[in-house]
Amino acid sequence: MRADFDGDGHEDAALLQCSSTEHRFVVVLDRAPDPLCIELSRWKREGKDNRVRLGVYLQRLPAGAIDLPNWDTGEVDTTIILAHDAVEFVTFGKAADAYFWSDGRFQEMVTMD
């Protein structure tokens, strides 16, 4: 997935990557003179194939307002304004986490249960 995650006007990339023993979720920021790769999550491979399980995917969250529910009541509890696009890491059957750039680093927030 491509978007400007850090707000510098350059297109960055969010990727699911596989090695021989594990999977990784990384963001590559377009920086001069060299790109900056930031690992946001890592987990062990399961089984013999080299594919990320179908229940794991990335989703772009556009800049702007995002409502976060109160997990106890289900009502909207907090509205956050994203200054730049964010990336959501979704795993079937688990909570989803969104990663957004703020104060020179990626911050994490739970967006779905």
Please describe what this structure looks like:
The chain is mainly β. The protein has one domain (2-112). Helix content is 0%, strand content 58%. The chain has no helices and ten strands. It has strands at 2-3, 12-18, 22-29, 36-44, 56-61, 64-69, 76-82, 86-91, 96-102, 105-112. A four-stranded antiparallel β-sheet has the order 1-2-3-4, with no helix packed on it. The mean pLDDT is 87.
What's the structural blueprint in terms of helices and strands?
Blueprint (H helix, E strand, L loop, with lengths): L1 E2 L8 E7 L3 E8 L6 E9 L11 E6 L2 E6 L6 E7 L3 E6 L4 E7 L2 E8 L1
Antiparallel strand pairs: 1-2, 2-3, 3-4, 5-8, 6-7, 8-9, 9-10
Main sheet attributes: strand count, strand direction, barrel closure: 4 strands, antiparallel
Compute the separation of the termini in Å: 23 Å
**β-strand number:** 10
Helix content, binned percent: under 10%
β-strand percent reads over 45%
Q: Which spans have pLDDT < 50 for at least 5 consecutive residues?
A: none
Instruction: Give the ordered list of helices and strands.
Output: EEEEEEEEEE
List the strand order in the largest sheet: 1-2-3-4
Task: Tally the structural domains.
Answer: 1
Q: Which structural class should the secondary elements be placed in?
A: mainly beta
